[in-house]
């Protein structure tokens, strides 16, 4: 047994050990995420924004390696922008999801990335696509991801309802993310919420003192 | 001290910790020594146990805290508590001093290190004896260091600068406590395995005082945090 190995610190790559969540409600969808980016035990960024812009009504939530997911999101943002320019109208959420999927699937042996693509389009309304590690694409009404999600599967299964109102969905996401942050050492800080509807995007910053579970 | 695991040569004790306690910070002040620790025990990356009071009083004038494997900490508390009890057998009214505890722990840790079966702990022992303050760090290998200030874990990286700038060995108890609180604020922001509820305990001429757990205030509502790079990409 290598004695020195157990006791020396190892450098860990920067990841978004994280809690991310998206829920469709009657009229739009709510996205929520914590704000901690960790490098092993060190908090590299305590106020990160894990809700990445892909297009005017399409967002992605990143978990896994921060470097991998940021780069992929950058490429997909570019492709979707070019595509939307040619299309002349809002792109489909499924299109963005498929572009993410191509990266995650073709490079599955080199990447550590799991992404939730969430947005609204005029063709099918609010949609959520979960893209786990291997590159599969699964459409869902609600999705949770990141290391913190393991702690709230029970909570979410018990409390999710179809066709919630905006207030119900917001409270659901806020409490679920708060509960995950309460127990997951790799999640923490403040909560960022985003409400995506046909007409607008609304960002919300939940200060640490307003997080419901501490 | 015979640990049952050492009777069987195959068994190893703590090669990788399971339940771990967080950083410990201890400062000497004019008239005593104060220790601070948070109230969290982590199970890997999970914040499993959030109300753990980790400041152990091992004798009338000595307190002991450690970071690392929590079960090893509990075992050491048992071993240290035995020392004073067995000293009663001499019936001479002599009680072990804080330094005796520190020395004992250093010898014990070194012995286990030599058997490649360490107590997975960074230990802090603080006390007040014969008008003198005592503060020592004993690490996983049995290295013994007496000092006026001691930090373990992540606090060694983040808090030494704060301590250097805001503390001196003749400050008041309240000043020392405030420095410790500031250190734990930084730790809560930057250590994944830290919690913002901390507990302070101090030893002075009157003896040991362990306070109730308290929450430290951290600031998160900076404008820069609210409006971050991603915002600028929104075209609305």
Automatic annotation (TrEMBL), chain A:
Superkingdom, taxonomy of origin: Eukaryota
Residue stretches in coiled coil: none
Record-level GO cellular component terms: cytoplasm; nucleus; proteasome core complex
GO molecular function: peptidase activity
Annotated localization: Cytoplasm; Nucleus
Matches recorded under Pfam families: Proteasome (PF00227)
Listed InterPro entries: Proteasome_bsu_CS, Proteasome_sua/b, Proteasome_suB-type
Main subcellular localisation: cytoplasm
GO annotation, biological process: proteolysis involved in protein catabolic process
Keywords: Cytoplasm, Hydrolase, Nucleus, Protease, Proteasome
Keyword Metal-binding: no
CDD domains, A to Z: proteasome_beta_type_6
Purpose: Component of the proteasome, a multicatalytic proteinase complex which is characterized by its ability to cleave peptides with Arg, Phe, Tyr, Leu, and Glu adjacent to the leaving group at neutral or slightly basic pH. The proteasome has an ATP-dependent proteolytic activity.
Oligomeric form and interacting partners: Component of the proteasome complex.
Family: Belongs to the peptidase T1B family.
Name this protein carries in UniProt: Proteasome subunit beta
UniProtKB/TrEMBL annotation, chain B:
UniProt-listed CDD domains: proteasome_beta_type_4
InterPro entries according to UniProt: Proteasome_beta4, Proteasome_bsu_CS, Proteasome_sua/b, Proteasome_suB-type
Pfam families listed in its UniProt record: Proteasome (PF00227)
Secretion signal, residue range per the UniProt entry: none
GO cellular component: cytoplasm; nucleus; proteasome core complex
Keyword field: Cytoplasm, Nucleus, Proteasome
Subcellular location: Cytoplasm; Nucleus
Chief localisation class: cytoplasm
GO biological process, one term: proteolysis involved in protein catabolic process
Family assignment from sequence similarity: Belongs to the peptidase T1B family.
Subunit: The 26S proteasome consists of a 20S proteasome core and two 19S regulatory subunits. The 20S proteasome core is composed of 28 subunits that are arranged in four stacked rings, resulting in a barrel-shaped structure. The two end rings are each formed by seven alpha subunits, and the two central rings are each formed by seven beta subunits. The catalytic chamber with the active sites is on the inside of the barrel.
Function as written in the Swiss-Prot or TrEMBL entry: Non-catalytic component of the proteasome.
UniProt name for this protein: Proteasome subunit beta
Organism: Paramecium sonneborni
Lineage, opening ranks: Eukaryota, Sar, Alveolata, Ciliophora, Intramacronucleata
């Amino acid at each position: 047994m290598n004695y020195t190995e157990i006791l020396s610190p190892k450098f860990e790559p920067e990841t978004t050990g994280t809690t991310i969540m998206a829920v469709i409600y009657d009229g739009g969808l709510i996205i929520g995420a914590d704000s901690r980016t960790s490098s092993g035990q060190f908090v590299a960024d305590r106020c990160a924004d894990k809700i990445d812009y892909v297009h005017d009504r399409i967002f992605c939530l990143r978990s896994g390696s921060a470097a991998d997911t940021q780069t992929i999101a950058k490429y997909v943002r570019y492709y979707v922008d070019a595509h939307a320019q040619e299309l002349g109208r809002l792109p489909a959420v499924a299109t963005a999801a498929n572009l993410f999927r191509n990266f995650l699937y073709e490079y599955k042996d080199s990447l550590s990335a799991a992404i939730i693509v969430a947005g609204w389009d005029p063709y099918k309304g609010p949609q959520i696509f979960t893209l786990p590690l291997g590159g599969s694409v699964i459409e869902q009404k609600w999705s949770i991801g990141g290391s913190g999600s393991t702690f709230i599967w029970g909570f979410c299964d018990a409390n999710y309802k179809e066709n919630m109102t905006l207030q119900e969905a917001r409270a659901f996401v806020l409490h679920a993310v708060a509960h995950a942050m309460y127990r997951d050492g790799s999640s923490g800080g403040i909560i960022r919420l985003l409400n995506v509807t046909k007409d607008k995007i609304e960002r919300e910053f939940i200060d640490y003192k307003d997080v419901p579970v501490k | 001290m015979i640990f049952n695991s050492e009777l069987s040569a195959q068994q190893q004790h703590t090669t990788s910790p399971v339940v771990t306690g967080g950083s410990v910070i201890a400062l000497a002040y004019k008239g005593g020594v104060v220790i601070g620790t948070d109230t969290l025990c982590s199970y890997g990356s999970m914040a499993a146990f959030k109300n753990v009071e980790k400041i152990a009083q091992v004798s009338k004038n000595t307190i002991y805290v450690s970071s690392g494997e929590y079960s090893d900490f509990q075992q050491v508390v048992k071993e240290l508590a035995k020392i004073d009890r067995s000293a009663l057998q001499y019936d001479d009214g002599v009680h072990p001093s804080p330094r005796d505890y520190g020395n004992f722990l250093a010898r014990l840790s070194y012995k286990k290190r030599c058997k490649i079966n360490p107590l997975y702990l960074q230990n802090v022992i603080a006390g007040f004896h014969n008008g003198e303050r005592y503060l020592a760090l004993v690490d996983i290998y049995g290295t013994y260091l007496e000092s006026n200030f001691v930090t373990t874990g992540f606090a060694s990286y983040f808090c030494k600068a704060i301590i250097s700038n805001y503390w001196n060995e003749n400050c008041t108890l309240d000043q020392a406590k405030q420095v410790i609180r500031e250190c734990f604020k930084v730790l809560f922001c930057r250590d994944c395995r830290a919690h913002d509820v901390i507990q302070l305990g101090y030893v002075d001429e009157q003896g040991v005082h362990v306070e109730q757990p308290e929450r430290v205030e951290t600031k998160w509502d900076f404008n820069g945090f609210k409006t971050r790079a991603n915002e600028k990409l929104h075209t609305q």
